[in-house]
Design a protein that fits this description.
- This protein is an alpha/beta fold and 176 residues long.
- It has a single domain (14-171), classed as MoaB/Mog-like domain (Molybdenum Cofactor Biosythetic Enzyme, Chain A), CATH 3.40.980.10.
- The chain contains five helices and six strands.
- The protein has helices spanning 30-41, 56-68, 89-93, 102-116, 142-156, and strands spanning 14-20, 45-52, 74-78, 99-100, 126-130, 133-138.
- Helix 1 links the parallel strand 1 (14-20) and strand 2 (45-52).
- The longest helix is centred in the middle third of the chain and has 15 residues, at 102-116.
- The chain is globular.
- The N and C termini lie far apart (32 Å).
- May be involved in the biosynthesis of molybdopterin.
- Belongs to the MoaB/Mog family.
- Keywords: Molybdenum cofactor biosynthesis.
Length: 176
């Protein structure tokens, strides 16, 4: 369980939310809305939100622009992590990563197993670091996004989480 000292300062992060879908619109993007609302409620700033079709090159363009933007420190995407022909988020993102965070996908699938059983093996949730930007690619279901946010991301993006968290490391991601 994550511990947060009462006197630790909260560091709000600048987050971008990307929904990967050929069918979602702003009106029915429940997963994107959940992530945006959860991040905002936690005290973070959502600097950008977009919906992009499941196309490797369109996705790389958006990810690359946000990775290059110094005003964005975290990108959370939802959708495109399955195994169908159109699911291409990992293929779009993985070549852009400087470092992968393998434990994220492993932990996400472990936690998801409690809700959806062996179907969790169909998820290719991934995470990594690119140009000092944290990237988390989640499945498209609202339940999966809730699991990822509530059981992993909320604590890891909170600078008060102990013994450690991603938020406290952000300033060091571009060290050489």
């Amino acid at each position: 369980m994550s511990k947060t000292p009462d006197n630790a300062p909260f560091l709000p992060l600048d987050i971008a939310i990307l929904t990967v879908s050929d069918s979602r619109t702003e009106a029915n993007d429940t997963s994107g809305h959940l992530l945006r609302d959860s991040a905002t409620a936690a005290g973070h700033q959502v600097r950008a939100k977009a919906i992009v079709p499941d196309d490797v090159y369109a996705l790389r363009a958006v990810f690359s622009n946000w990775i290059a933007d110094p005003a964005i420190g975290v990108i959370i995407s939802t959708g495109g992590t399955g195994i169908t022909g159109r699911d291409s988020t990992p293929e779009a993102v993985t070549p852009l990563l400087d470092k992968s965070i393998d434990g994220f996908g492993e932990l996400f699938r472990q936690l998801s197993y409690q809700d959806i059983g062996s179907s969790t093996i169909q998820s290719r949730a991934v995470a990594g670091l690119a140009n000092g930007t944290l990237i988390f690619c989640l499945p498209g279901s609202t339940g999966a996004c809730r699991t990822a946010w509530e059981q992993i991301l909320a604590a890891q993006l909170d600078s008060r989480t102990r013994p450690c968290n991603f938020a406290q490391l952000i300033e060091r991601f571009r060290e050489s």
